[in-house]
Structures are given as C-alpha cells and as structure tokens.
Amino acid sequence: MDLNQKKNTGKLYSPEMKAFALSLYYISGKAYKLLSKFFKLQSKSSLMKWVAAFPTAPELTPAAKEALARKVKIMSESSNLCTITMDEMALKADLLYDPGKDQVIGVEGVFFWRSSLIATSALVFMARGINENWKQPLGYLLVHESCLSDKIKATLLDMIDEITSIGLHVATVVSDLGSNFQKMIKSLGVTPTQPWFWHKGRMIFYLFDAPHIIKA
C-alpha cells in the first residue's frame, strides 16, 4: 500500500485502499483530514460516494455490513450498545425497471419473497448507538398498505442476528403504537409488566416511541 507521497489528480484506488481509508476516517475525521495533506488518501467526498455506491437491497448487503463492521472494530465496548428502531413511511406508488438487476422495483416484497401488489409504504429498520451518537440504516420492507406482524418479527430477528454477528449488542427495540407492532410484541411475550423478550440468550427491551405515545 503506497502512502509515501501526496496523491496525484485522477489516481485510482484499489478496494483495499478504499476500505483502509474508510476505517481511518471512522477513527477520526480530523486526523484523516490532516493526514490527507501528506499522504495519498481519498477525499471525504470520494469516500462517501464509494459508500453510497454500495449495492442497495432490502436486506443489509454484504458491502454495507462490511463497512459497518469496520466501524464496530474501532468502537469501545460501551459504544457497541445499540437500539433498533422500526418505522413505516408512506411511498408514492410507482414502478421502475432496474436493468442492472433485471428487476421491477416498486412491488411488495422482502428479501426473496415478492408479490404482484404495488408497494404503498416501506418499513425501515435502523440501528442507533445508545452511548455514542451513530446510526446505520439496516434494511427495509416494501409493503402494500401495512406490513404483517409475522413478517416484521422475522425481519427484526434477522436484523438482530446480522448486527450481533459483527460485534454490536442490541439492548432495545423501538417502534410506534401501530397495531401490527402491538400484535408482534404479543407474539414475543412482551407485556406491560415484562417489557422485554429473549432472543438467543439475550434479554432485549421493547419500547414504544415516546412522541407517538404522547400523540396517541
């Protein structure tokens, strides 16, 4: 890895070099900016463009998972503690053909399951640090009208497994008061007197989003 000289305009970087630069940037943005004055490092905007170009899909893609794993490696143990938030958002119903994937985008579906119904909303999953201010979108479900509770549950548990495998520790799950979420937590065994559920030996607390509770 050649870092001895200041970078030249138009220089191409290998994926390994980009991954190294991304890890360095995660450690300290200010230090990265300083080192960029003396070594062949990509600009911040170039790094962000590289990350933005990762393949997009409902699930946490391998490229996005690797980028998150690199950040986790330089986190302190307390910073690994996180929450998973879930929220539904309305979409403008439309269809789009993706020639790269030879796939019609905009129909209801998740992972390998797809229906013929046009999606009208998306259920988005995001991880957020509890002791440190960081966040990472994990995936989404395209659904027609509202997502069924069993699909939410299956996807949530998959997301927990995915980010646990790279060293994050899920302490809480947060959602609004939607009827599908309420049905899901009943299947998880969550009650007012027992606001948690167990998953693979770990106790995870379930919280309703406070602003939604106030509005309700």
UniProtKB/TrEMBL annotation:
It holds the Pfam family TNP-like_RNaseH_N. This is Transposable element P transposase. Residues 58-189 form the Transposable element P transposase-like RNase H domain. Residues 7-50 form the THAP9-like helix-turn-helix domain.
